[in-house]
Amino acid sequence: MSIWIAIAATAVGCYLVKLAGLLVPAGALERPLVQRLAALLPVALLAALTAQQTFSADSSLVLDARAAGLAAAALALVLRAPFLVVVGAAVAVTAGVRALGG
Amino acid sequence: MRDALGVGIAVGLSGFAFGVTSAGAGLSLLQTCALSLLVFTGASQFALVGALAVGGNPLAAAAGAFFLGVRNAFYGLRLSQLLALPRFVRPLAAHWVIDETTAVALAQPTRHAARLGFTVTGLTLYVLWNLTTLGGVLGAEALGDTDAWGLDAAGPAVFLALLAPMLRTTTERAVAGLAVVLGLGFLPVLPAGVPVLMAALAAPAVLWLKGRSIARNSNRNSNIARDSDADRTKGEDR
Question: Which residues are listed as membrane-spanning (chain A) (predicted)?
């Protein structure tokens, strides 16, 4: 049940911010500070989410095969590999390290 | 056309990865498909299932997803001027206001082409995203233990791939670095889903620190300060 609550809240919230952008008069969100903050918010969230989903199990910090997978993804990004290769590298290296007992 | 194909493949793969990740997080097929149908903004969906996977409070999990979706409001603002949609169409068009449709629409030379680009991209990606989500859930069921296949690394890899092109200047890198420290630092002590919201504070914190250091440097008026200011302004030119 609580999962459905989260789904409903996310769906309503995400729809309303999309709609808000189309409906509010131009200029309302054009203040430089607001724009700067809006650009940086996803940076902060994505960085935190990447780190958390790589280095945590429940609520403790761990270092396991996922770290190797993420390193592979980072290397692929540095080499300007396409999206498919980046995610594929992370998955393959994680699976490989696990298979070796890491 | 080649761009559209590239966008389509990337989105299709993310959809599949989302389906797999969501199934691995313990969501049912119906719940996973409801997310792709009703939320339709990838990063928020990944964030939500990631938070639910570790047993986060549903509203804290939704809040993290919501804040990731806030950027779509700024896309909508650009699009509303560009597309000049009639009022009654806007509630329908709003659902398709995402990274990819905005990028395509903004790249078009005329209003007509922008409207067409927005509609075609929106429709194509909506169908593709939902079909591949379904495929991901079914694929995860067929694979059994998704962790053995390393599929739990797909979520963070998707986030990293979205993040990488955003890290253009020192400011963005500082925000990302601080967010990682906050997100991991608060993880053992705060309830699941809350640490990522604390990490979001990295954005205003870095902006505030930057504002202070610019003010201080312009007072001192030293060579070093001038150089670093020049670097900053250069970095912000986009």
Answer: 6-25, 37-55, 67-97
